[in-house]
Structure formats: C-alpha cells, structure tokens
Amino acid sequence: MQLLAEKPAGEISLREVARAADVSHNAPYHHFSDRRGLLKVLAGRSMADLVTAVRVAIEQAPDPASAVIAGGAAYIRYAVEHPHGFDVIYDPTVCIPGEPSETMAPLIDELEQLLSEPSIAAGLESASGVTGVWGLVHGLGTLCAAGHFSLDDALAASAEALARMLPR
Amino acid sequence: MQLLAEKPAGEISLREVARAADVSHNAPYHHFSDRRGLLKVLAGRSMADLVTAVRVAIEQAPDPASAVIAGGAAYIRYAVEHPHGFDVIYDPTVCIPGEPSETMAPLIDELEQLLSEPSIAAGLESASGVTGVWGLVHGLGTLCAAGHFSLDDALAASAEALARMLPR
DNA sequence: CTCCTATGTTGACAGTGTCAAGCTGTGGTG
DNA sequence: CACCACAGCTTGACACTGTCAACATAGGAG
Questions:
Q1: Does A156 touch chain B (CB under 8 A)?
Q2: What is the pTM of this model?
C-alpha cells in the first residue's frame, strides 16, 4: 500500500516489495499466489478505503438527496487523491471479467443501499439508478484523476448532473 | 493494432511486435523511441477510430438533442467493442499527466463542437457541458467494458441521463 | 562515385515473474 | 518428552523483457 501511494500498480514488482520488506525475492510467493494475487489484495484494501470515504460522506449529509451528491463528491475525491489505488480497483487484469468480482461487492452494496432510500428511489428510472449514478461519478473521477479537467469542474458537473437525475 | 485487438496494451511487448513483423528484436527502436512511443501511436490511432465512430453517429442524427444521445451511445459502444483500444487511449502511463495531451485534442474538439450547437448549449450549465457529458459516457463505457453491467443497461442509463442534462 | 540516412542486425546487460529444491523454527500430536 | 508437519524463508535457475551499443547494408542526394 505504501508503494501504491507513490507509483501505479503496473510499476510495482514482487521483487521490489520483497526488497522493501527486507526479505528474499521469493518470500512474497508464500503470501500471494501470483503477482495478480498481490494486486487483488491491494485492490481489496483500496476498495475498502473508497467505500469508507463514501460512507462517511453519506452519513454526514442532512438528507437523502444531498447524501447522493456528497457520496459522489467523495468518490471523485478519492479517485483524485489516490489515483493508483483507484486504478488498481478497476484494473481489468486484476478484476477478472467473467466472475461477479468479489472486490466490487462492498461498493455496489453501498450504492444500492443509498439509492434504495424510498424518497429518492421513487424519482429514479430503473435504468439510471445505480448504473447512471455510478457511471457518472466514475467517469468524472477517472478523467479528473488523469488530469483532463480540474477537480472543481468535476465536482460542479457531478453535483449538477446528480441533481437533475434525482426526483425533480 | 492487430495485437491490440487480442490483448491489453500492457501485455504487448516490443519483442512480440518485432516477431509478428518477422524482424529482429531491436528493429522497432528505429520506428518508436520507446515502448511508450509505440503505445502512444496505438493510442493515437485508437482515438481516431473512436472519434470517427462518434462523428458518424452524430451526423446521422436528425436533431442536435438526439445527436448528443447517439454520440454518447457510440462512445460507449466503442469502449465495449474495442476495450483494449479504449484502455490504451486513457492509459495514465501513456497519456502524460502534465502536458495538454496531444492525443485527446480530436475528441475534445468534437465534443465542444457538438455541444456548442446553439439549441443545446443554451440548456447546459457551463460546468456540466463537456465535462458532464464526457464524464457520464466515459464512466458508463469504462464500467460496461469491464463487465460491471450490461451494454443495454449502460445505453439506457446514458440516454436517460443525457436527456435530463439537455434543455428540458 | 561518394557519402549520409534509414533501416536492420547481433550481442549484451539488468530487471522481472515464476518454478524447484532445500532450510528452519514453532506448534500440536502421539 | 520426542516427533513431525508445516508456514515462512532461502538460494538458484530459467525464459522473457526493455534498452543500449556496435556493426551492417542499401538506396538516394550531392
């Protein structure tokens, strides 16, 4: 996790983490099946951090509608502040395409719980519930973390678009 | 490009493209500065394909509002149908974070041109113009390509959310 | 004709993921 | 208590990769 704060997951080698832990180059194989095994653990921990950040933001919001907006802002902030952690969560070589993806469950649960709040669920078309909200903040977070526009722009666009997607 | 259709950019080695071209392992260095040089060219070509797909969709739409929705659908479709090409466009190790990113210019131009259409620009808050539309379809495309939900769900959510972001 | 440049070649080096084989201390079972 | 299984670590090896350096060759510009 310490290395992940400094460099992207793709540039972290098993041998490097072995050196950082001051052990032999093969010791990691007794803790992770694979290089992918290591990345999966990093992805799991990063996801836990992400979900915690979102949950805290939601809980501090005064009402369900602003909870959605605050949660979206927290998601975007996480992507910008921990870009390598965010990337490894969604790394297609880590998050296997076939299976339902153990790693994603916490986030999806949190989202569904948030959006099933009766007062806001009523205003969401079924198709744009979790899908629309997740897609919007994910795209804004990703592009913002990559530097394609500023955090301020992303947060403003997120708040406005989410407001329009909620019950008017 | 042929290899990119089969496997992610991260798994394409310079030596492998050399073998595919039936040429010595070092020949690529006379055409690309670096491994990153190769990926940058792949990203540029992929971006051209993406922009073409979006432009075609826009041009076939009957009015500006449906052009936005059709363009978004084309963007999402490209992400799902050419996942490795889509990924390499936005690969953070390729698309350098500091500089304004040569590769992105065509897409941004296209988006700005589309959204500056007077009849729709009037209904968009400034913050959620290019940023909001791009963020939405990018997130939906990325998550859909990764298999987190179906193409149908993504297209439905995209159409609905875009409709709400346009002038009511 | 001469020479430069583009392209290609072989050879080498360090770094990596991964496998195989062997060491060691610690805990639990007989 | 003796014993042993085993988790954790080690060294050693292999194939593969990106990259550098030095050398070859061909074809066009002067």
A1: yes
A2: 0.93
